[in-house]
Design goal:
The complex is a heterodimer. By secondary structure, chain A is α/β, with parallel strands linked by helices. Chain A contains 13 helices and 8 strands. Helices cover about 50% and strands about 15% of the residues of chain A. In chain A, strands 3-2-4-1-5-6-7-8 form an 8-stranded mixed beta sheet, sandwiched between helices. In chain B, helix 2 packs antiparallel against helix 3. The chains are: A alpha/beta, B alpha/beta.
Chain lengths: ~300, ~475
């Protein structure tokens, strides 16, 4: 049986993990009673997971109130409530991964170095396994060798990549890719875009143009915009989601690099404030290391 | 959001009466805000805790300087302590006494190693060195290709060979560099997770064998609380000498810089501030403190501005503002100078929040819009530029046609110009602010010359 990602985390990385951190359980043993030290420790555990100060304080307020109302005195009794609150924040209606229509289009965006290209390869791999006809669009025409990187992945999987030369207009690549996808009767088109900082307004405008072209050329297809967020990202992740969301209407977040020690708690802040759900998580470097997001398992790992 | 620590602290202290000394309550109340600001900036919570305790100890009972309010006094102490914690000055890269100096870059995936490798080489070239690049990331698809392309762009040799191990590649590369008479070798390595035993072993082996003079950890400025774990393990395994902090051109506060210094004792050596290859700069602890506290990075801005703005023109402009004879010609000149300083968004990021003035940091400036404004003014006659009040309906539509815009846009510009003029008039009346007042919560940096001090103020006043 294949281990779930949580099992994988717990098993494979135990050594480093033990050395490195984990606050919550020692917290419960050190502070069995709900005193100030306990609350402070809980606050630190959440902040250490990058959940952010605002969501953390809201959570603590709720828990304190709940504890008072129900006369909870033991910290162990509080843990299930904390988990429920977090799961609540992170749960949304389940949607199907692949967009409707033909071709269903994924527009994959994010800041530099979060793992967009790798994520695209993983989604393509998943689509291939499900028997879908997949096409890649190399619309990162900015970074050196980005086109080659996507192409190498494509070749490994036997998937074609639509590309222009480096420095060309990414919207033109998308135009060609959509027409090509239509001609080849592709089920899924994955568009790779250049990493860009969300504060760079002209680059955000470039993304808007890409999306506009895609919508115009494939009017009956659903276009799913995925924001790729690195799990090591701190509070800036919120700003990323906000600005990408304002520019593009992001449908979901892909949280990558969860195989390290970072907890990726910023997605709780993103979902709480911006209502953008996490849809996929990246848990390794292999093509199969992509999983659908499960709020409960995520919360378990977050608090472990 | 906690963008405006200065204003928030000011708020805390307007509630309190101004006293001669900081009481424990004053300090505690202020430090609550500081703590939030630091956590929001991703400084590790343990580091924050120690830091706050230290500042509290120092601040309680401290005499409030005459020129400062209690709030400003606390910020000054916080700022000084932060700066001290990050290192008291610039930390230079060390070079080998017998060339070539070998520098190895390590870090997590996506932190920006390959780009930093090329930038570093460019940086050395500008210092008159002869750098040589070794592409030893054999894992990520097309990583070697990426460095080769970047190397071509800056016209620098890149060594790579297919099918070799990382160690063999690095060794061969260094040999090649010696034979080519290059004096700095920069080795790019694959991104790896600090918990990946195999990959960390590989790095240890490479380090042991090639004995680099410097190992630099490349860290993304957007990194959160995990930065300490990453830095800690990398230090244990390969013991890096310093850090390159990347992607600082966004709106990340970069608290990771502080966490890493505090946990490993290793300094930040260089920061990367943009997409262009010449965007690598030495690290300044005091500027980073301001940034982490949300007070803007004025000094970098001033340096950029000084490089781009001709002093004589600036003085002439100030004269005009004082005499209220600022016209559209000057406006155009300003636009052009503004563009030369750097992308507008970057400039805005670097500005501090000025209490009592519209929130400049939040202004969205669009490069295209600037181009548009330029076109409109250029479509005006010199007469119109000097006295925009003569622009009537037919002149307006001529200008719109000439600039490829609309009458509406022309009107907008005229309105903006009128507002800018009013603002300048106001600012002109305020006279020269005393140090420690209005634009800065403290005297900018006593070691700076008065001349530069004045430039800073001038720049801020011009908005």
């Amino acid at each position: 049986m294949r281990k779930g990602w949580f099992g994988k985390l717990k098993g494979g990385l135990r050594k480093s993990r033990e050395r490195l951190s984990s606050h919550l359980f020692p917290l419960l043993t050190h502070f069995p009673r709900l005193d100030e030290e306990f609350w402070e420790g809980l606050e630190e555990a959440l902040i250490e997971a990058d959940v952010g100060i605002r969501v953390t304080q809201e959570l603590l307020d709720k828990l304190r109130e709940g504890a008072r109302a129900q006369e909870i005195r033991e910290s162990a009794q509080l843990l299930p409530r904390l988990k429920e609150e977090l799961v609540d924040i992170l749960t949304t209606e389940k949607q199907s991964l692949f967009p409707e229509g033909k071709p269903g289009v994924f527009l994959v965006v994010g800041v530099n170095g979060t793992g967009k290209t790798t994520t695209i390869a993983k989604i393509a791999h998943r689509a291939k396994i499900e028997g879908k006809n997949v096409l890649l669009a190399a619309a990162d025409t900015h970074r050196a060798a980005a086109i080659e990187q996507l192409e190498i992945w494509g070749k490994r999987m036997g998937v074609a990549t639509i590309k222009h030369r480096r420095g060309s207009d990414p919207a033109a690549v998308v135009y060609d890719a959509i027409h090509s996808a239509q001609a080849r009767d592709a089920d899924v088109l994955l568009i790779d875009t250049a990493g860009r900082l969300h504060t760079c307004s002209h680059l955000m405008a470039e993304l808007q143009k890409i999306k506009r072209v895609a919508m115009r050329e494939a009017p009956e297809a659903e276009i799913k915009t995925l924001l790729v967020v690195d799990a090591t990202t701190g509070q800036n992740g919120l700003s990323q989601a906000r600005l990408f969301g304002e520019a593009l209407e992001v449908d979901g977040v892909v949280l990558t690099k969860l195989d390290g020690t970072a907890k990726g708690g910023i997605v709780a802040a993103i979902q709480d404030e911006l209502k953008i759900p996490v849809v996929l998580i990246g848990v390794g470097e292999k093509l199969a290391d992509l999983q659908e997001f499960d709020a409960r398992a995520f919360v378990e790992a977050l608090l472990s | 959001m906690f963008d405006n620590l200065t204003a928030r602290l000011q708020n805390v202290f307007t509630k309190l009466r101004s006293r001669g000394r900081l009481s424990e309550r004053d300090v505690e109340e202020a430090l609550r805000e500081v703590r939030l600001a630091l956590l929001e900036a991703d400084v590790n919570f343990k580091v924050v805790k120690d830091f706050i305790a230290k500042v509290k100890e120092r601040a309680v009972g401290e005499e409030v300087l005459k020129s400062l309010t209690p709030g400003q006094q606390v910020i000054k102490i916080v700022h000084d302590e932060l700066t001290a914690l990050m290192g008291s000055g610039q930390s230079k890269l060390a070079f080998a006494s017998k060339p070539p100096t070998v520098i190895m870059l390590v870090g997590l995936q996506g932190s920006g190693k390959t780009t930093a490798t090329a930038k570093l080489a460019h940086y050395f070239k500008n210092q008159g060195k002869r750098p040589f690049l070794v592409a030893a990331d054999i894992y990520r698809p097309a990583a070697i290709e990426q460095l080769k392309v970047l190397g071509e762009e800056i016209n620098m040799p890149v060594f790579s060979r297919a099918g070799e191990s990382v160690l063999a590649l690095a060794k061969e590369g260094i040999k090649e560099a010696i034979s080519k008479n290059c004096d700095v070798v920069v080795v790019d390595t694959a991104g790896r997770l600090h918990v990946d035993e195999e990959m960390m072993n590989e790095l240890e082996e490479v380090k042991r064998e090639i004995r680099p003079h410097q190992v630099l950890l490349v860290v993304d400025a957007m990194t959160g609380q995990d930065a300490v774990n990453v830095a800690f393990v990398f230090k244990e395994r390969v013991d890096f000498d310093g850090v390159i902090l990347t992607k600082l051109d966004g709106d990340a506060r970069g608290g990771a810089a502080l966490s890493i210094k505090a946990v490993t004792g290793r300094p930040i050596k260089l920061v990367s501030l943009g997409e262009k290859l010449d965007d690598l700069q030495p690290f300044h602890p005091d500027r980073m403190s301001s940034r982490i506290l949300g007070m803007g990075d004025v000094l970098t801005l001033v340096e950029k501005a000084e490089a781009a703005i001709e002093m004589e023109k600036a003085q002439a402009l100030e004269e005009k503002i004082r005499k209220d004879s600022f016209d559209l010609e000057d406006f155009l000149e300003q636009l052009r100078q503004f563009k030369r300083v750097g992308p507008a968004s970057q400039i805005m990021e670097m500005l501090p929040q000025i209490p009592g003035l519209p929130n400049v940091g939040k202004l969205q400036v669009n490069e295209e819009q600037l181009g548009c404004l330029e076109a409109i003014i250029q479509s005006m006659t010199p007469e119109e530029r000097r006295d925009p009040t003569i622009i009537n309906g037919s002149r307006r539509s001529r200008i719109a046609r000439g600039s490829g815009t609309t009458s509406h846009k022309v009107n907008q510009l005229l309105k903006q110009f009128e507002q800018a003029r009013k603002l300048m008039k106001q600012l002109g009346k305020l006279g020269r602010p005393k140090p420690g007042r209005r634009s800065f919560p403290f005297r900018v940096n006593p070691s700076l010359s008065k001349e530069r001090d004045d430039t800073i103020r001038k720049f801020i006043r011009r908005g």
